[in-house]
Amino acid sequence: MPLPVLVPALLAGCLLDKAGYLARVAELTDHDGDGYVQQDDCDDADASVFPGATETCDGVDDDCNGLVDDNAVDRLVWYPDADGDGYGVDANAILACDAPTSTWINRGGDCDDTQATVSPAGTEIAYDGVDQDCSGADLNDVDGDGFVARQAGGDDCDDADASVHPGATEVPYDGVDQDCSGADLNDLDGDGFVATEAGGDDCDDADAAVFPGAAETWANGFTDNDCDGDPGAAVLEYGGEEWVGTAPGAGLGWLVRSLGDVDGDGLADFVTTSLFDSSVYSDAGSVTLVRGGTTGALTGATEVVAGGADWYLGAGLDAGTDATGDGVPDVLVGADGYSAETGRAWLIDGTRLAAATGLDPLTAAFGSVTGDESGMGSGISVAFLGDVIGDGSVCVGEGAVFGNVDGQSEEGEVAIFGGLAGDVMFSNGDIEVVGSYAGGHLGGSVSAAGDYGLG
Q1: Inside any domain, residue 304
Q2: Are residues 123 and 255 in the same domain?
Q3: Which domain holds residue 387?
Q4: What is the mean pLDDT of residues 281-295?
Q5: Which helix (H) or strand (E) segment is 288 a member of?
Q6: Same domain, residue pair 39 and 118
Q7: What percent of the chain lies above the pLDDT cut of 90?
């Protein structure tokens, strides 16, 4: 049978089901361009809806799994809020597009959903054992100093003041117990008596040997040990020495220095000055060698006596250093009133001082320094300073409080000499230190205070 006769017949048969053909074509077509044909896409008119699409809270089955809004990426966290305070309990939270009921809220953090006064927005009440603001604990450190208040079982004695807590620095006599020890600090020296500054009767709260009823003693000088308002007569303690000047008004003890054992008897010797000694000239002054073991009047003692009125020999004094190199400690003494108050200082050899009964500083000195200017008052203070200039010698320093330098009035100055021997002028010092302003009176006190690397 010829083939051309059959082809028209077959085509005619297919065309009889044209509607089915077009429906099938529609099923196999992606009308919304989302990559899925109609037969696989649950909404081929919406390009955002197709199998595997991201599910969101929009009331649509975006991923074509037959469920609406299931596991939507923009679901909210909902918390049950039984007490209606606007905060829910974290432990019972759910994820959903909408609140299950009106008692659910999308804000958590409530630590007690049975009390509307307890939530992250609650007002904390200190020391009541309730964590009103859900911070994790009751408020028991109101001042924020890191210590729990006593009202809450801690040891902070004042929870309203951050400077008050155990271990704080105590301020004496202010009536405040800063360190919570139980009382304000009112006995600094620990002698058991409250200071007068705090209403007590301890007249010197820095000295444990001074308190009401203490024994008066010469060991700490002119001190009212028993706080009765009168230093009284000092008790000479066992082994002590008490020296008495030989002339009224001489002022024995103006300055005292330890000299060392210059006479080799095994006892320490001392030098002391009588600034107003007038035994030879009015207010000439003198320096006395007091041998170890001496007690009472210093009659017959070795004295260096000034050679003129109003010298005030002994205004400056230092001793105990061997500046002359003979192995015996020497004495350095000043007289600020010497020669119209130019002032002068003498270095006296300890060996010669120990061997003599009376010396004139003008002839007995190993070396001396004399002021250059009337009224400058050099020698008012003197000191052995050690090797300040670095030449191996013992240096001496001398102050002149009324010195006028650089056109300034009485700014004062200090001169330092290395290896003092012979007579030199104040202005010839190896080092000169001048006051920085008029009336400064530099040089009122000169002393050695340690090695600061000078020289």
Answers
A1: yes
A2: no
A3: 243-434
A4: 87
A5: strand 286-290
A6: no
A7: 55
At 138, list the tokens: 């009751």
> Do 121 and 35 belong together in one domain?
no
48: which residues sit within 8 A by CB, 6+ positions away? 34, 62
Tell me how far apart the alpha carbons of residues 378 and 344 are, in angstroms, rounded to a whole number. Answer: 6
Dihedral (C-alpha) 173, 176, 179, 185: value to the nearest 10 degrees? 20
Q: Within a domain: residue 160? A: no
Contact 63, 43 (CB under 8 A): no
Q: 39, 27 in Cβ contact below 8 A?
A: yes
Residue type, 100: P
User: Do 397 and 449 form a contact (C-beta atoms < 8 A)?
Assistant: no
111 shares a domain with 50: no
Length of the chain: 455
Q: Are residues 300 and 354 in the same domain?
A: yes
Phi-psi category of 406—alpha, beta or left, where left has phi over 0 and alpha has psi -120 to 50? left
Flag whether 87 is in a domain: yes
Q: Are 135 and 32 in a shared domain? A: no
**Which of these, 433, 414, 408, lies nearest to 369 by C-alpha position?**
414
On whether the pTM is more than 0.85, the answer is: no
| Chosen domain end from 52, 71, 90 | 71
DSSP string, 363-421: HH-SEEEE-SSTT--EEEEEEEEESSSSSSSPEEEEEETT--BTTBTT-BEEEEEES--
- What are the Cα distances from residue 353, in Å, to 83, 319, 363, 381, 384? 101, 12, 12, 21, 17
Domain boundary among 111, 139, 167: 139
Alpha-carbon distance of 226 to 153, in angstroms, equals 44
From 5-14, 20-29, 222-231, 347-356, the region with the lowest mean pLDDT: 5-14
pLDDT of residue 284: 93
Q: How many domains does the chain have?
A: 3
Amino acid code (one letter) for 66: G
Q: What letters, b where the CB count within 10 A reaches 16 and e where it falls short, cover 350-362?
A: bbbbbeeeebebe
pLDDT of 38 over the 70 cut: yes
Please state, in angstroms and rounded to a whole number, the distance separating the CA atoms of residues 305 and 348.
Answer: 12
Residue 6, pLDDT score? 42
| Residue 388 and residue 260 share a domain | yes
Q: Any idea what the CATH number is for the domain that residue 309 is in?
A: 2.130.10.130
**Structural domain includes residue 40:** yes
Task: Looking at the structure, tell me whether residues 322 and 363 fall in a common domain.
Answer: yes
- Rounded average pLDDT over 349-358: 76
